[in-house]
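Question (not urgent): is this output format expected?
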Amino acid sequence: MSDNFTSDTLDLTTGSQEAAVDITDRCAAFLARAARGRDGLLNVFVPHATAGIAIIETGAGSDTDLLAQLRELLPADNRWHHRHGTPGHGRDHVLPAFIAPHATLPVLGGQLALGTWQSVVFVDTNVDNPHRQVRLSFLG
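Got this back:
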């Protein structure tokens, strides 16, 4: 691969509860190695059918609010046609229609160009699979 494109995988363990995991620092660490001060784009991709990437504020309750609203919007009950796994697991397969499994972010001078309160957050409502991956790719 050329120097203009670099990719790596993050391994995450989300546990047995719904999770909103801030991965901003891990994205920045990847860019320190991959971008080396260059401008470009960071693509964050989740290769799972039941998780997504959100750009939100964390630490002030927004991450907790997001999970609460997802429970309200996508309840874990028996309404879902997709029925393997824990009760209500079908909702986990609908999640990526609301929280995309990817985000492409600007990189300036090797740093994420996020807004003041923005963070890159891995969102996972699937309690059946605590072992997850996120693919980070830098193009610059």
